[in-house]
Amino acid sequence: MELKSIEILEKYMNSTTLHDHGHHEHDRHEHDHHEHLGIPLHNHGHHEHIDILKEELNKNENFENIAEVFKILSDPTRVKIFWLLCHSEECVANVASLIGMSSPAVSHHLRLLKTSGLIDSRRNGKEVLYKASEDSTAKLLHEMIERTQAISCPS
């Protein structure tokens, strides 16, 4: 699964804001309709970006990819494993010991995280070591976890 959707969302969130919250009597979108439903949009005076929003909302694949990432991280154990691997490169046995789970259960979670692109692995002799991906998506999710939980990176 590609994580480009989160990168698109991150770019959009960083570059697009609705600045004008005032009401305009002659807003050009005053009579916009939800094209597929025929329901008029309410005029709240901030529809200057409505065309961009409509275009992005129609890109279902982007939202499906984002939902998949959140689905992967909807399991607290996977969030713990991901967070751990943001700080340390570990083998399955060490992750299992630190999390307090069996190695087969941890392997299942690692496989899902790896398939999603959130973690990477490398072989070191007979062992496979795992760590968080270096891409901006993984870094953003790491920061989100720490800010949400008010935890910080170990020194």
Quick rundown:
With 155 residues, the chain is mainly α.
Q: Any descriptors?
A:
155 residues, two-stranded antiparallel sheet, three-stranded antiparallel β-sheet, elongated, mainly alpha, 5 strands, single chain
Task: Walk me through the structure.
The chain is mostly helical. The protein is built from 7 helices and 5 strands. It has a 3-stranded antiparallel beta sheet with strand order 3-5-4. Strands 1-2 form a two-stranded antiparallel ribbon. A hairpin with a 4-residue loop joins strand 1 and strand 2. Helix 4 crosses helix 6 and helix 5 crosses helix 6. The protein is elongated, with a radius of gyration of 21 Å. It starts with a helix and ends in a 6-residue tail after the last helix.
- Spans of at least 5 consecutive residues whose pLDDT stays below 50 are 15-35
Structural class: mainly alpha
Spatial order of the strands forming the largest sheet: 3-5-4
Order of helices and strands: HEEHHHEHHEEH
Biggest sheet details: 3 strands, antiparallel
Strand content bin:
5-15%
Secondary structure: elements and pairs:
Layout: H1 4-15, E1 33-34, E2 39-40, H2 50-57, H3 60-72, H4 76-87, E3 90-91, H5 92-99, H6 103-116, E4 119-124, E5 127-132, H7 136-149
Antiparallel strand pairs: 1-2, 3-5, 4-5
Helix pairs in contact: 1-3, 4-6, 4-7, 5-6
